[in-house]
Amino acid sequence: MAPKRRILPVTGPPGAGKTTALISLAAQHPQLARFGVRDFGLELARAGDPLGLRMRETLLRGGLVSDALVRREFRCFLDRLSGEVAAVAVEGYPRDPRQCRDFTEVVAAVDGELAGLVAVELPDEEVRARVVGRRICTRCGIPAPEGATAAAPAAGAAGAAMPAAGRPEERCAACGGAVAPRDDDAEERLARRLADYRTVSAGVRAYFRARGLLHTVDGLRSPAQVRRHLLDLLLPTAAASAAGAPPATRPDPEGGDT
């Protein structure tokens, strides 16, 4: 019997590097798929899918996508996966205990393995140091310089985009999108986002901790170390092959791994 597909939500405060790490890992490992509520919803909308169009309309109004709609979107994503996908990293879902129950039911319905919640941890002061003033690709969402922004054409050269400051516009090396600050990364907005994250994540962490399914990753480690730890949790076999040793598991006294 083939092993069940591992499905793990990944959470962390702004600036923890989780999105950048997961995009990189998914590009390197075809057995790993990444689901983002907003990203997949917009992908469906671009394809003209009614579900995606409803989600985009809600997002453009500044509204909250209903639990039922997110649940349908998540199930749609899982149903479309190819057979080679052995693990799924989920960002932005679940966000509260009720969504945790929905999430668990969907995973069971597709005969997947609920392999735990991965929480990338970062102190508030480090979040502020990383986030305030950072630049994000407006197309793929990868932060710079983690996204390795490409050098723009020299000033005055043909095709050089000249912003108000008189410098060529920076472009993302990953996809070519424009790089710009995010409005909600301003210090006052960040404080609200961080408070919201701490409140929301507490209930989700408690749900998974009670089931012995909480794993933590130290976001203060180097990007390479964070990626390795995430890979070890998401795709233990691939991580072991890369390291040439069996994956190590470390018991967490609170019921998960560290």
Task: Explain this structure.
This is Adenylate kinase. GO terms for molecular function: ATP binding; nucleobase-containing compound kinase activity. It comes from Actinacidiphila yanglinensis. Keywords: Kinase, Nucleotide biosynthesis, Nucleotide-binding, Transferase. The protein has helices at 18-28, 37-46, 50-60, 67-79, 97-109, 124-131, 187-209, 223-234, 236-243; strands at residues 6-11, 32-36, 87-91, 113-114, 117-121, 135-137, 143-144, 179-181, 214-218. It is an alpha/beta fold and 258 residues long. It folds into two domains: 6-131 and 188-243, 3-Layer(aba) Sandwich (Rossmann fold), CATH 3.40.50.300; 135-181, no CATH class. Strands 1, 2, 3, 4, 5 and 9 form a six-stranded parallel β-sheet that branches. It has a three-stranded antiparallel β-sheet with strand order 7-6-8, with no helix packed on it. The two termini are 30 Å apart.
SSE series? EHEHHHEHEEHEEEHEHH
For the secondary structure, the number of strands is 9
What's the main sheet like?
A: 6 strands, parallel
Number of structurally distinct domains: 2
Q: Would you tell me the overall average pLDDT?
A: 83
Low-confidence stretches: 147-167, 245-253
Instruction: State the helicity in percent bands.
Output: 40-55%
Structural class: alpha/beta
- From the alpha carbons, calculate the radius of gyration and give it in angstroms: 19 Å
Terminal residue distance: 30 Å
Shape: globular
Q: Could you name the CATH homologous superfamily of the largest domain?
A: P-loop containing nucleotide triphosphate hydrolases
What is the CATH architecture annotation of the largest domain?
A: 3-Layer(aba) Sandwich
Strand proportion: 5-15%
CATH class of the largest domain reads Alpha Beta
Q: If you consult CATH, what is the topology of the largest domain?
A: Rossmann fold
Number of helices: 9
